[in-house]
Amino acid sequence: MRERPREDDSAAQDSEAASPWLPVQRGTEVPDLGGLEAPISLSHALESGFGPRRLDNDDDRTDMHLGIDYDATVGTPVYAVADGTAFRVKPSSSSSDPATLYIEHVVAPFTFQGRELDRYYAVYSHLVDFNVLEDEAVSAGQEVAFAGETGGANSPHLHIELRLGTWCSLRYSTENPDSSCAADYDPAINPLHAFPASVEGPLSPLVVSEDPLIVKLRHAEQDFDFNRIESDLGVVDFDLRQGFDASTEEGLDDMDYGWVQLSPDRRNDEEDAQGYTLRFTEPVAWVELLDIHGEGWRLEL
Ligand SMILES: [Zn+2]
Predict the structure, then answer these.
(1) 9 falls in which pLDDT band (50, 70, 90)?
(2) pTM for the whole thing?
(3) How far is the CA of 70 from the centre of ligand 1 (A)?
(4) 272 neighbors 283 (Cβ within 8 angstroms)
(5) 125 C-alpha vs ligand 1 centroid, how far in Å?
(6) Distance, CA 206 to ligand 1 centroid (Å)?
């Protein structure tokens, strides 16, 4: 909590004192998939969260990370998050193509972005080997594959996504227009909605400038659940891809949303937790910063 702005009468020029953050609790539009099993032992650290991030191998580039990454060694077992079916077992075909397992989970019908859906897919990537065959039934907690570093990962880890309604991403269907799997939306949500988390803590926003408004925001260490920026000028929501041009890879990876620019922290910052710098390019009357649970902070200007 050391980063929360606080009253300080010794600093009359301190703009933070006039701009207290108020706690807010909103709902979430992401369906409740129920409590799932962890895809890997929770002793493995989360090393990359869902949403915009700075690329490991090129500090000047950012992309939209549609899953979460658990640090792992090659051969670490990974587990089915619920009862389901091994839908697609795709070995690596080249050094840039990760071995990937898709498990289909059929559930009670739910609504997401106006669509009636009845299944989701857990997608495990950068694997070194599989422990199931295509079409094989799997049960929750079953060992289904082994983590690795195929497909150009720069260290062994498990990348896992939850995709609602369709196994293929918008990116895939854009690149493979003849595929039978065509999605007209980007189906990935932050898996931390449904996975057991080793850490859950509040967001820590800090106003570093009021004109223009610049906010530094951090997750609790390894929490990685920042999701939404809302103001009188608009909404940016990672889960819903609201505020993004999600129709192209370039649009999805662009961190400039018109009224706010979002800059993911560089890795290996002096502080451990990953966060963002938000620069508001137009004056805003109020801002809310929310995590995936709809919890966060409101700032009146
Ligand atoms: Zn990843």
Answers:
(1) very low
(2) 0.89
(3) 8
(4) no
(5) 8
(6) 28
pLDDT at 192 over 70: yes
Report the chain's mean pLDDT, rounded to a whole number: 88
pLDDT given at position 107: 96
* 105-162 per-position pLDDT tens digit: 999 999 998 899 999 999 999 999 999 999 999 999 999 999 999 998 889 999 999 9
CATH class, domain 46-193, is: mainly beta
Ligand 1 centre distance from Cα of residue 50 (Å): 8
For residue range 34-76, what is the model confidence (pLDDT) as tens digits?
889 999 999 998 888 999 988 766 767 888 999 999 999 999 9
- In terms of Cα–Cα distance, which of 62, 137, 70 is closest to 105? 137
Contact 181, 274 (CB under 8 A): no
| Distance, CA of 143 to CA of 33 (rounded, Å) | 21
| Cβ within 8 Å of residue 182, ≥6 positions away | 168, 173
Cis amide leading into 187 (omega within 30): no
- Extract the tokens encoding 292: 């995936």
Q: How many angstroms is it from 48 CA to the middle of ligand 1? A: 7
What's the gap in Å between 161 CA and the centre of ligand 1?
Answer: 8
pLDDT digits (tens, 9 = 90+) for 251-301: 888 888 999 999 998 876 555 557 899 999 999 999 999 999 999 999 999
25 Cα: distance to centroid of ligand 1 (angstroms): 29
Instruction: Spell out the domain ranges in the chain.
Output: 15-29+199-300, 46-193
Residue 83 identity (one-letter amino acid): D
CA of 40 to the centre of ligand 1 (A): 14
Separation of CA 68 and ligand 1 centre (Å)? 5
Centre of ligand 1 from the C-alpha of residue 23, in Å: 31
